[in-house]
Inverse folding.
C-alpha cells in the first residue's frame, strides 16, 4: 500500500501502471484509465494519455514546442502535457 498523498504521478506501461512516489516506483497490474477513475479529481489530473499528475507536485508549466507544454515537478522531473491535459490543468489552477 502506498499512501495517496505520497504519489507524485502515475505512468501508463501497457496494461500496467507505474506508480512514482518519493523517488521509488511500483508496478500495478491495472490500466491507467481504471486507476485514475478512483483518484480525487481535485488532486490528480490526467495531463497526457500516459500520465496522471498529483497537482501538489507541480512546480510550473513550461512551453516545449508549438502547442505543447511540459509539467516540471518540484524535484525537477518533467512530464509531457497534451493540449487536452493543459486544458484540464487550467480548469483546476
Amino acid at each position: 500500500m502506498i499512501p495517496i498523498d505520497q504519489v507524485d504521478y502515475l505512468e501508463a506501461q501497457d496494461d500496467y501502471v507505474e506508480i512514482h512516489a518519493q523517488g521509488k516506483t511500483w508496478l500495478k497490474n491495472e490500466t491507467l484509465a481504471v486507476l485514475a477513475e478512483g483518484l480525487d479529481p481535485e488532486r490528480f489530473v490526467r495531463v497526457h494519455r500516459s500520465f496522471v499528475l498529483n497537482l501538489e507536485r507541480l512546480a510550473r508549466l513550461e512551453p516545449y514546442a508549438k502547442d505543447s507544454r511540459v509539467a516540471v515537478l518540484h524535484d525537477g522531473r518533467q512530464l509531457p502535457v497534451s493540449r487536452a491535459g493543459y486544458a484540464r490543468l487550467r480548469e483546476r489552477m
Remarks:
- The longest helix spans residues 83-92.
- DSSP finds two helices and eight strands in the chain.
- The domain at 4-92 is CATH 2.40.50.1020 (OB fold (Dihydrolipoamide Acetyltransferase, E2P)).
- Residues 62 and 70 are 5 Å apart (CA to CA).
